[in-house]
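Consider the tokenized backbone below.
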């Protein structure tokens, strides 16, 4: 792994947030870099991400997730399925703590070492708006339904919906973070579901396609 140059990574993050028109506080920037440092440290043992270079982590993980946060503005209960190393859930939680203090983010993953990492991040960064669960989402019964269920690089859209639709509140929606526009996946959506919007995301310094896919129930 390349050296973790905190000042240089901070500059990169601040510039990227500015390019995204996100007004992040000094405390939010600090927590995002703290999170990245934890990920880089744990990654050597837990293999949380294939991205090893901290500079690339800022772009491909932090800015990639930050580019999507405005889509969650009106949500109160959010579920991140297949949360892995915490993307977008942890980034969303750090942003929401100041921007949307009512928001609560639940993260679920089947892999215990990943949820152990997320629990450690929650504790070290004092993220009181986060809860972490080790379970298969299709078998999990949550204490409440969710306004938004999200995932990033988790599964095909049809599986994502089928496995977690029992957790979506009436009037809620799925927001999937995808790379290239998933036209073939959209064509295979389960009956009763429709794409409300496919939104192109522009991630600073990332030379790759990114899309948000918004999926809602078909009105009966």
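A designed sequence for it:
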């Amino acid at each position: 792994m390349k050296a973790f140059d905190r000042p240089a990574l901070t500059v990169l993050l601040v510039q990227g947030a500015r390019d995204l028109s996100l007004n992040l506080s000094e405390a939010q920037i600090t927590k995002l870099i703290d999170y990245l440092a934890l990920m880089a440290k744990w990654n050597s043992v837990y293999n949380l991400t294939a991205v090893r270079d901290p500079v690339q982590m800022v772009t491909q993980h932090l800015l990639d997730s930050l580019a999507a946060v405005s889509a969650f503005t009106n949500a109160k209960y959010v579920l991140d399925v297949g949360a892995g190393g915490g993307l977008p859930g942890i980034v969303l939680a750090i942003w929401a703590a100041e921007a949307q203090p009512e928001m609560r983010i639940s993260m679920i993953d089947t892999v215990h070492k990943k949820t152990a990492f997320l629990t450690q991040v929650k504790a070290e960064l004092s993220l009181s708006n986060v809860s972490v669960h080790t379970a298969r989402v299709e078998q999990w019964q949550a204490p409440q339904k969710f306004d938004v269920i999200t995932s990033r690089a988790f599964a095909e859209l049809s599986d994502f919906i089928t496995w977690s639709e029992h957790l979506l509140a009436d009037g809620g929606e799925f927001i999937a973070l995808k790379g290239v526009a998933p036209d073939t996946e959209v064509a295979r959506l389960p009956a009763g579901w429709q794409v409300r919007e496919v939104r192109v995301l522009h991630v600073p310094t990332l030379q790759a396609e990114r899309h948000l896919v918004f999926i809602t129930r078909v009105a009966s």
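Helices lie at 6-19, 26-46, 54-66, 89-99, 112-124, 157-164, 183-187.
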